[in-house]
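[User]
If only I could read backbone structure tokens as easily as an amino acid sequence. I have put the entry right below:
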Amino acid sequence: MMSSGLDVKPQYVHHMSPEPPPEVSYVIPNQKDQRRRWLKFTEATIYSVLLLLLVAGVLLGYYYSSPCAHGLRCSDGSCVWKDQWCDGVPNCRSGQDEANCVRLQGADFLLQVYWGHRWTNVCSSDWTEQSGRASCQLMGFSSGTYSQSGQQAAPSDQSILVISSNFNPEVSFLKQLQLRSSCPGNNAVTLRCTDCGRSPNSSGPGGSQLASEGAWPWQVSLRFAGTHRCGGAIISPYWTLTAAHCVASLSNPADWAVYAGIVRPLGTLFNPAYPVSRIIIHEGFNGQTRRNDIALVKLSRPLDLTDGHIGAICLTNAGLNVTTHQQGWMTTFSPPSGAASGAPYLSETRVSLVDAAECNKSTAYSGAVLADMFCARAATSVCHTDSGGPLVTLQDGVWWLLGDSVMGGHCTVQDNLGVYGNVSYFRDWIQQQMMKHRDA
């Protein structure tokens, strides 16, 4: 019997299902890990920025705390750009940036100007006496102080300064210079502001003896209240140089007078007294150590350097070759030889320069000779040295001022050694003071 379709039951057929596809795993970043990485990145960025700010702060701090990192320092601590130094316009309050812009080089008195951060020669083309006078004024000499200009061959491989062909004495000398690669005629300027260093008639081959009239025309007697106190040297018609310890405690100019051209006590009767208008003591002078033991004495009226018995000594130029054991002369006002006291006469003594190490031995000055001093050995014992008295040397036919007596009677020290202030060490200071207190 046929059954009805309603009776048909569905057959369950078992099917083998295929293997499921490999499960793909998606790594979903953990919110905490993501936040941690973001914080690390942020911290690194902040640290980098802070480090940069710290470096910038240090650099800015150095820049502002040391302004001369980008210029040159004035004496009051302020600073000016290097290009403003010696540009003819005072930028330091004291005018220091325009005070040492001109110098004389070597035994030939070669004129040089500080230009572009180095010393540069000046072309002789279009050079005039007006130019020479202006140059001398920039070295502290008065407008009436000028001797002569000359010339010498200039190095062809160096730049040189050329003066304006229409030189105007009313305009700064420095503003009328231009740097050029060559010079017409290829000659550089030589300059003498004073007729200094003329050869004296020194008598005798050596030793110590009385000086003859006119032998040392730059020697002066500095007298306080009419009494000789110290020696000194004429460096220009208005200026004499001496030791600071001579005048430090008696610095009223009205109490002083300068006598020039005298060698014997009665010389004051026949030579005029020159009143003093200003005494300038080195600001770093130390009376105990004698450091910076130098002073300038300015006269109220100029000395007559045309007098045969009065003349100036040349300050040592830059680059002048002065060597150890060089010969020189010391002049001093002291009592006659063998006398313990009495009216002072001018005497002369031959000396030779001595190495500082030898002078600083325990048997001599035991380290008291400083960098601004030098030693010289006298040919004979000299017991009455004259403070401030000059020590000079002859070189290339010119007499130069090497030092001023600052320490020691020769006979009290082994080997007749005396100590002198090194004038070349103070050359810039001397020029600055002469410039600052220069007459028109």
